[in-house]
Amino acid sequence: MTEFIQNLIGNDYVATMVMSFVPLIELKGGIVFAQSAGFDFFIALALAYVGSTIVFVPIYWLLRPILNLLQKIKWFKKFADKVESFFQDKANKTMEKQMKKHGKSKLNEVLIKQLGVFIFIAIPLPLTGVWTGTAIGVFLGLKFREIIWPAMLGNLVAGLITSLLALLCSTIGINLDYVLYALLGVAIILLTLTIIKLVKQKPKNKDEETGC
Predict the structure, then answer these.
(1) Which of 30, 65, 181, 186 is in Cβ range 3.0-4.6 Å of 20 for a Cys bridge?
(2) What CA–CA distance (Å, rounded) separates 200 from 47?
(3) Residue 188 CB: number of other CB atoms within 10 A?
(4) Taking a C-beta distance cutoff of 8 angstroms, is the pair 198, 89 a contact?
(5) pTM higher than 0.70, yes or no?
(6) What is the mean pLDDT of the segment spanning 10-18?
(7) What pLDDT digit, counting tens, does each position of 20-61 carry?
(8) pLDDT of residue 141
């Protein structure tokens, strides 16, 4: 797969950043590809980190407007409502987890939300990258300046963990091309399951979404 991507894009630097920008693949796929292509540990991390981190800017500013626009179009309204409910559910669950841990502490509500987004992004699992993490931040009501450090720091932690795991795989003789195939396979499966869930899901009204 590494060779296919190299031939398709023609530049390993650009290929790493492009892969890191793509949802589901994101940072994890970018780092594995870069190390497989022969990049140094830190160069691979830096390229994938930049490509996957900058995506939080357009997501933050465009997610709500795009959903609002789709909700005004008859053919897309139901889908947009379901996507909104999907992210609102994730935001509510993230907040609930953090409130259980920090609700009785001296942390203010904004910091608790930021910690939730940071932890969500920092754990390098499928569907836990900057794309979904930023969407959660949006539905938690975080301002742009409040989402910057959770996105950037969380993605850095995820990048370091992924880089070390990829290096370990190489060290013990696991072909990173196989790892890349596995990541892509998991991404496709999870995307399919998410779409099925969205199709079956009934949009919630505003009161249900906010728990009122």
Answers:
(1) 30
(2) 38
(3) 11
(4) no
(5) yes
(6) 92
(7) 998 888 999 999 999 999 999 999 999 999 999 999 999 999
(8) 95
Length of the chain: 212
Q: Please report the sign of the dihedral spanned by the C-alpha atoms of residue 98, residue 103, residue 104, residue 108.
A: positive
Report the phi/psi class of residue 105: left, alpha or beta, with left for phi > 0 and alpha for psi in -120 to 50.
beta
Q: Using one digit for the tens of pLDDT, what is the confidence trace for 76-108?
A: 898 899 999 989 999 999 999 888 887 767 678
Alpha helices in 37-129 (DSSP H): 41-53, 56-71, 77-102, 109-122
- Residue 23 CA to residue 152 CA, distance in Å, equals 16
Ramachandran sector of residue 34 (left: φ over 0; alpha: ψ -120 to 50; beta: rest)? alpha
